[in-house]
Protein 1
Amino acid sequence: MKKENKTHDETKLISGGRDPESNFGIVNPPVYHASTVLSPTLADWRTRDPMKDIVYGRMGTPTQKSLENATALLEGGDKAFATSSGLGAITVALMSFTEAGDHVLMTDSAYNPARSFCLNVLAKYGVETTFFDPTIGKNISNLMKKNTKVVYAETPGSLSFEMQDIPAISEITHEHGAVLMHDNTWGTPLFFKSFDMGVDISIHAATKYIVGHSDAMLGILVTTDKHYETVYRGFRSSGQHAAPDDCYLALRGLRTLGVRLNQHQENALVVARWLESREEISQVLYPALESHPGHELWKRDFLGSTGLFSIILDKHYDDISLGAMLDEMDLFAMGASWGGYESLILPGSPIRSATKWAPEGTLLRLHIGLEHTENLISDLDAGLARLKAASKP
Ligand SMILES: Cc1ncc(COP(=O)(O)O)c(C=O)c1O
């Protein structure tokens, strides 16, 4: 009898979405640029199905479908949709499941433009949003209303790094007939299996780790058969389009996601532990550290940790001192986004409405890239020395 062999994630990363037989044996799905897709007959024109077939460039090319299939396979969802950006995936998800009179519960730690979309756009269409303490867990039941249609999570929050109890939140969400959305950009489809955890719609800024090289913009929504049609309607009506070249780059990035993430994780742990030992740092907000308040949840629910975390300095520094540190960094560059191969550093201030964010020091967010940790640590060491030298006693 043939031995049943489980397909491991490393294998899914390599084989997912590939179809050399349909592409002259070419290993990587090629880039298809398309708007018009011709029908050979009237019968074909009448019967082609935009949900399954390649019918028009905006609705997806074979390159896009390859990426969508590979991502869904990896995360354990049934279907995926590629959007023009991560924020595009967030807005499609929220619009697909809400209408006037509905209520959304959103984690207070959500990526700020997701908050703004609720407050500045959904509100105009009669959808109310309440923010909740990211650590609320089962007590989210106290905030559920009759008209709550969506609960929106992000674990860990990508600036403040609180961990959320997604299975507990999922249970309550489903008891109330709502859907649970989760921004899984930090965890990626590799390290957080959203659908095993009870998520209905998983959102990725593929711009970050999936692309992995800081050179393309893309979002991906992954969902289950149960919610597929609702997401599809929202996706199709919103005019979203994922650029074919960016889909190609994301698919190419996906093949090495596993090895890259393992290295980001290893490097981040070394740098985080070093930072923890420094007197200029009062807190390192990295869930893989034992000192992180959400460490047990991370251990329970995640298969790994990635390269993004924040630190809280020992006090608040003005821009003259911060500039002395950051302007002269050799390897840590300042720039939006994260998830590429390079290290980044930026000051940040989480925006809150349901919870208080008042640490006693400045927050810096670091992305730990694939450089050697000895070089990263000496860059930070010299930076912290400049910070201290420039700050008033
Ligand atoms: C957690 C998170 N979600 C979503 C996004 C949005 O992704 P994009 O920049 O591709 O729109 C970002 C971007 O920084 C992010 O950090």
Note: The pocket of pyridoxal-5'-phosphate is lined by residues 85-87, 111, 158, 183, 185, 205, 207, 217, 219, 337 (CB under 6 Å).
Protein 2
Amino acid sequence: MAADPFPVVLALERIAPVVAAYPKPAMFQLADEGFRSVFEQLVACMISIRTREEVTLRLSRGLFATAPTPAAVAAMPIERLETVLAQTTFPERKARQIHDIAVATVERFDGVLPCDGATLQSFNGVGPKCANLTLGVACGIPAVSVDVHVDRVVHRWGAVAATTPEQTTIALERIVPRERWIDINRLLMPFGRYVCTAALPKCSTCPVNDLCPRIGVTRHR
Ligand code: SF4
């Protein structure tokens, strides 16, 4: 007999009060601070790729203080943008990609990027993770965004058996109701960062300990 599917929604409900004690994911924090346009969210997510949360927050705030509109970013020399982004990973590549998006926003979209996933993913450097996070946070459109933390957690639960984040995204879209799609990243990113950590997850105090098969976990706290 097949095992019961992992109750993802129940897990999200238990995890919500636990992660409230930890910092919000950078994109949600930036939205709270007013950086909630499609352009700002997309750019901040690109900065966040393979970059620590604290650095993402600092560089995003710094960039938007220096250049508060897509037109202002488009007007920056790329070398200046590289300097602003120097502490992120791949600053030259990200500077070029972000500059291209700023120029396109001004020239093709009259300064306002649309809430449209296909448009966002048409830009170099933008994949489903950042496009979907932007749709969710900036536009309030249900979308699943899978980062390394989300991917690790749902695999430990046995909720998903996928080999790429894109497959994980599709699998989660099938098993989680649309009204909880934005919550997947909002809740599971900090949960994976602070509780279900890559090394030595905190299973003994975990709110879903009784539900979790701990797939692949060999040592825990
Ligand atoms: S019980 Fe352990 S492996 Fe399972 S979700 Fe909690 S911390 Fe992660």
Note: The chain has a mean pLDDT of 96.
Protein 3
Amino acid sequence: MLALELASRTSEDWIEQATRHIDLVLLDHANCEKKAAGNALSLLFRYPANGRLVETLPPLAREELQHFERVHRHLQRLGIPIKPLSAAPYAGRLNQHLRRSEPEHLLDTLLVAAIIEARSHERLGLLGIHAPDPELRQFYLWLAAAEERHWQLYLDLALEQFPADQVQERLDTLLQVEAEILSSLHPEPRVHS
Ligand SMILES: [Fe+2]
Ligand SMILES: [Fe+2]
């Protein structure tokens, strides 16, 4: 069974930055959940005849929207004003590594999604330990478990449709790219800064 092990661990610097600016991280997180739902939907648009995607992604998109609703409730509870926030360069930089031709594009898209979910799993788990508010800590621990299921789902979708050695090789490459992107802390506090 292929496992997904991130090529780097999140630094103490990120934990410090995120907990000091939890309002910005929560605002960014609300956007991340919307994007996660949107990405699942765009895969459905791009591959309308792919039975496995059609079967598994609608419930995933619904779950991500429920996450968004719950993050939004925490923003309201904590009195954090909603404002537009620029995204971290993280996802954009990862997406630059998607190969354009098929079926490679599908493989890369599934693997990048798996990696983003795995990093979210790691970081939300850290917020589950370090967030300043006890209700938030509980919420993040619950959420981290969901994001763990999501990276497994995307990895399984890749393994069902591509040979294992091809998945492994590409996964290793993209994991290195991801670790490199996060190797210096983005100055703006974000989930993926
Ligand atoms: Fe989520
Ligand atoms: Fe997710």
Note: DSSP finds seven helices and no strands in the chain.
